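Annotated sample (chain length 309).
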Amino acid sequence: MQKCVGIVGIGFMGQAFTANLLRAGFSLRGFDKDSGRMKEFQDQGGIAASSAAEAARGARWVLTSLPNSAVVREAVFGPGGIAEGAERGLLITDATTSRPEDSASLATELEDRGIRFLDAAVSGTSAMAWKKDLIVVAGGKPEDFEACRPLFDGFAKAAYHMGPVGSGALAKLIINLVLDCNRLGLAEGLVLGLKAGLNMDSLLVALKEGAAGSKTMDQKGAKMIYADYTPESHLTTALKDVRLMLEQGQRFGVPMLLTSIFAQIAQIGVESGYAKYDSSSIMEVLRQMAGLPTVKTDKEERQPFTQPE
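Output written by the structure step:
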């Protein structure tokens, strides 16, 4: 049991968590409703479980990485859920980008059952996750956070305790807020350069090496200028997250001007057919607004990027 981890949700992030935890010497028993993901999990060296309850049985930690907090609740308390297989003292660490209030409510219910809970969101793309280039921002009791350090060390480069349960989810939303605004600013600048006829490769290098340089440019710059929207996460996920950010702005009475603009751009992108593409596909919305040709969407045959003459 010492290094036994149950993992529930083996998508973009879950696959990367699995690879790093197995490399670190953990024993993994995992569950996902997608049979294809389960096969990939087994190919990596994980043990397939027939349910979330089975994944949790005998584990020291359970790591969840799911689409939203409603799915997390179902995975915990639904039929065959984690709570059915959990022993008292189990630590659930939820890496889902969740609504902070939902995380706090879930923690209270689990505490009544003797199960400990951290909302332990991660910051980084799935590509970064494979390289173990993530950070964890966690909310929960300090002693539970310390008890999870060995697990975090297995798949992340650093972990930070943000406060009580819900604080990790809120910190992740703030990180994503800044990140989304950075990506929108980058896309807007690149579209201006594109329409003006600048050499886009040179412009991107100048942006990276100048005062505006950022990880956003390293991760998404080339994807934007070459219209390579192979998903590291989906635009629908970005839209879901930004709606959660706006909720928190209303909750705390904070103006969310730039975040609101990103939400509208993301909504247009999703409705234009880029739902399952990478979030960098917001570039296409701005290209269209600027009167530039756009690449084909998932509803049509895609065409390669071409710079206007």
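Annotation: The chain is about 55% helix and 15% strand.
Annotation: The longest helix spans residues 167-196.
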